[in-house]
Amino acid sequence: MASQPLAAAKATSFRLKRPQLAPFAPPVLLLGLWQLACASGLFPPQILVPPSEVAKALGGMAASGELQRHVADSLYRLLVGFAIGATAGMAFGVALALSRLIESVLSPIFHTLWQVPVIAFVPLMVMFLGIDEPFKIAVVAIAAFFPMALATFDGIRGVPRNWFDVAKVYRLTLLQLIRLILLPATVPAVLTGLRISLTRAWVVLVAAELLAADSGIGQMMEMGRQLFQIDVVLAGVVVSGLIGFLLDRGACWVESRATRWRTA
Amino acid sequence: MKNALSRSSVRLAIGLVAPLLLILWWQSQASGATATFAPPAAIASALAELLRSGDLVRDTLATLQRAFTGLTIGAPLGVAAGIAMGIWKPVDRLLGPLLHALRQVPMIGWLPLIGLWFGVGEGTELIVVSMSTFFPSMLNSHAGVAQVERRYVEVGGIYCFTTLQRIRFILLPAAMPLVLTGITQALAFAWISTIGSELLTGAGSGLGVAMQTAQVQQRLDVMLVVISVTAVLGFLINQLFRRLRQSLLRWQPAQP
């Protein structure tokens, strides 16, 4: 993005137009081919529906409020679970990095659990929590917890040793140490951790909703599959991709805004 | 205190405290009235039972085979696509936006669609696993080729390298660390998506299928055995590949 004004200054406006449009060509071309393939009758409508049908399905679901309900339910779970998981992960990462005792007690079990794909916990959690809201929030929280804890831990461990010595010279309390030194020094690592855990939480949430849910984007797709409504399934793919993209972009934007001072 | 903590034997002993406490707490919960918790002893006997019947070995082999088949399909395609996009700008312009759009959909989210197309079974699972290994390989290979220093390429220009020679002698070796990083990531993704797709489709045999069955049968002991196997194998595969990567990149100066 930042290089665009530069490119604009170098290129004449005539030359600039084509490279800017180029990225849109393949998707448009693909959509066109897709529509044509469906119109030619090569694929039965049970297998592939044209993009116009997908758009119609999206429009229909939006008009009936069904789409908004699924999206809202998914986003609510994501938000609550992520808030819990990321906060806990951050606190855990700080504790693990600051205290050697806590590290030696808890890091083996942490590193073992971290190896397990979060999705493998899903059947276990269904057994304990059922398939209601607490289950989905817990899945999201666990998915967000591990990358956040690791990023925070790495961020604090990356702080140069002598900064701690300076803190000791100034006799900073633990709170002051966190606020004045650790927080500013670890912001970039923590923000990257937030972004990773946000996108990962979204992926895991969709998977959990596919497995067991009564609403949400994942459940919408799974219902569509069971009822052979391919337009609904494709609409779900589009919506979940779009939400994933927006989450990642939003987090990227926050990350670059918050760390602006670093490059200055 | 500090000296004691830096001794590895002491650290190991302290590291065992939390798991031991957990097991003790677990045992005390299990001996209570509620039967949801399976006592650790029951888990050990479930492991023995699963090993004797051969189910565990069969499921593990099925999952491993699926993950590696998916990896051998998806990762080379991803590396090829990433390198092609890194070398030829037009390819990047044409394929980049499309691939980045497809990448945004959670991989497991493709399962219902692919399940509709190819039926619930082996093929669907393999496609999802291959797709999930494709993207990390592609992204890292692309970055690897893109960050090759210009002067290396210029030296190639002086020697009048053909495109193939340029790829073989300059771009590939220089991009190798990131390509291998991509494949390492792809390996982790393959493992996760195999378990995930097995859980969701529940077809054939595999660790995910075993987990799903255990959930339906309310066999917590079996489930915990399967989860532990998943964790241990995931860890071992990662370690193995890290070793492999180190020996492949011996010639490189120390990695940051």
Q: How does this model look, in words?
A:
The complex is a heterodimer of chains A (264) and B (256). Chain A is mainly alpha-helical and 264 residues long. Chain A has 13 helices and no strands. Chain A has helices spanning 4-10, 13-21, 25-39, 51-64, 66-98, 100-114, 122-129, 133-157, 161-169, 174-211, 217-226, 230-258, 260-263. The model of chain A is unreliable at 1-16 (pLDDT under 50). Chain B is an all-alpha fold and 256 residues long. Chain B has one domain (41-248): MetI-like (MetI-like fold, Orthogonal Bundle), CATH 1.10.3720. Chain B is globular, with a radius of gyration of 23 Å. Chain B starts with a helix and ends in an 8-residue tail after the last helix. The interface between A and B is large, with 55 and 57 residues.
Name its key features.
heterodimer; A: 264 residues; mainly alpha; 0% strand; elongated; B: 256 residues; MetI-like fold; 82% helix
Shape assignment of chain A: elongated
Helix content of chain A: over 70%
Please state the structural category of chain B: mainly alpha
Q: Could you tell me the mean pLDDT of chain A?
A: 80
Output the number of helix runs of chain A: 13
Question: How does the major sheet of chain A shape up?
Answer: none
CATH topology of chain B: MetI-like fold
Q: How many β-strand runs of chain B?
A: 0
N-to-C series of helices and strands of chain B: HHHHHHHHHHH
N-to-C series of helices and strands of chain A: HHHHHHHHHHHHH
Total strands of chain A: the figure is: 0
Q: What's the gyration radius of chain B in Å?
A: 23 Å
**Count of helical stretches of chain B:** 11
Structural class of chain A: mainly alpha
